[in-house]
Amino acid sequence: MKIVLALGGNALQSDPKDTSVEAQLKNCRETAKAIVDIVEEGHTLAIVHGNGPQVGQIIKTVNDAHASDKSNILYPLDVCGAFSQGYIGYHLQNTIQEELRRRNINKNVGTIVTQVEVNPKDPAFENPTKPIGSFYAKEEAEKLMAEKGYIMKEDAGRGYRRVVASPKPVNIIEKGLIKDLVEGGSIIISCGGGGIPVIKTGQGVKGIAAVIDKDFAAEKLAEMIDADQLVILTAVDKVCINFNKPSQQELSQVTMQELNQYIKEGQFAPGSMLPKVEACKKFVIFNPNKKAIIASLENAKEAIKGNTGTTIVYK
Ligand SMILES: Nc1ncnc2c1ncn2[C@@H]1O[C@H](COP(=O)(O)OP(=O)(O)O)[C@@H](O)[C@H]1O
Ligand SMILES: NC(=O)OP(=O)(O)O
User: Fold this and answer.
1) Does ligand 1 have an atom closer than 6 angstroms to the CB of 54?
2) Which end of the chain is more exposed for a tag (fewer CB within 10 A), N or C?
3) Residues with Cβ < 8 Å from 71, sequence gap 6 or more?
4) Can you tell which superkingdom this protein's organism belongs to (predicted)?
5) In 10 A of CB 286, how many CB atoms?
6) Could you give the CA distance from residue 59 to residue 76 in angstroms, rounded to a whole number?
């Protein structure tokens, strides 16, 4: 099968407090094993990853360098997004190549710097919701709001984080290239961090300050390269109702009708599980005969076989 695989934050950083380059590389080595397990099953893969912590870190580095010496360039958010694609793509392709070599599998792996078109009139530009970078105490957050004009929001009891606009993807500029390479059998990492957000202008496409949700970008890619399946990997094995309550129930297979009811009941947290569920819903509405899966990275291979994870079907 031709699969679009979206990697959650735990694929890159298992400990949110350890944002070091070494920790990311170590995590990628584990992630690469799960990815190559899927390749060994004979599937072709287009991989999409997030960049929330990393792009925030890059922005901070750029800002700190500028504050200490004004001759250092203050790179805009779209360029920082491009940096994050290179940084994360490099670690993923490096570790996947190594894992393939270890198992004597001959396949090409590479990263495509990907521009993703958004609508400049998307209401998301008026209401920033995407958390990026580190967590701050209330006082530090207030200082950053005053000094840098950032919008900072409390994130699920874990502290304050900067939030930026997260418009929906409407088109993937490099879709033809990605499709050709994936169909040729290469493992392609693209749309990293949801893609570099760009808008169409009379003079071609140009970058805009935003961070696109990687689950929505993965769904758009799955539509555009005609993938057989969308697989969203995260830290939990299955989507639940009554999550974290004594009455918690894991979902193995869910239809569109059931999903809509659960969404109405507020069963999925807006900044975490809801975008994944919404992305899967969009994929099966676009392809009523295909399935979308939400599963853990560790159990990805088994979830694709239908043995675990949550499968979303049209009906
Ligand atoms: N209803 C739910 N069922 C399962 N997990 C949920 C639910 N609501 C919220 N979550 C949480 O959402 C997390 C996934 O979101 P998040 O960590 O933001 O994604 P990512 O893996 O893309 O970084 C899960 O690990 C889980 O802790
Ligand atoms: N761009 C994006 O969705 O990143 P995260 O998954 O890290 O939030």
Assistant:
1) no
2) C
3) none
4) Bacteria
5) 14
6) 8
Residue with tokens 């990687």, as numbered in its chain: 214
Cα-flanking dihedrals φ and ψ of residue 299, to 5°?
-105, 20
Q: Is the ipTM of this complex over 0.90?
A: yes
The closest of 284, 279, 281, 294 to 240, measured between CA atoms, is 294
The DSSP bridge partners found for residue 205 are 200
Residue-wise pLDDT for 243-252, tens only, equals: 999 999 999 9
Give the pTM.
0.97
Nearest to 310, CA basis, from 247, 264, 265, 258: 258
Angle between helices 214-224 and 273-286 (to 10 degrees): 10
Any ligand 2 atom below 6 A from CB of 51: yes
Distance CA 67, CA 9 (A): 29
With vertex at residue 88, the alpha carbon angle to CA 190 and CA 168, rounded to the nearest 5 degrees, is 45
Angle, in degrees to the nearest 10, between helices 273-286 and 256-264 = 150
Q: With cut-offs at 50, 70 and 90, classify the pLDDT of residue 16.
A: confident
Ligand index nearest the alpha carbon of residue 191: 2
| Helix runs in the chain, H state only | 21-40, 52-68, 77-102, 138-148, 175-183, 214-224, 256-264, 273-286, 300-304
Contacting residues for 41 by C-beta, under 8 A, at least 6 apart = 301, 304, 305
CA distance 206 to 201: 7
Pocket test of ligand 2: the residue of 214, 233, 294 to mutate, having most ligand atoms within 8 Å of its CB, is 214
**What's the length of the chain?**
315
* Separation between Cα atoms, residue 12 and residue 26, nearest integer Å: 8
Strand pairing class (115-118; 196-201): parallel
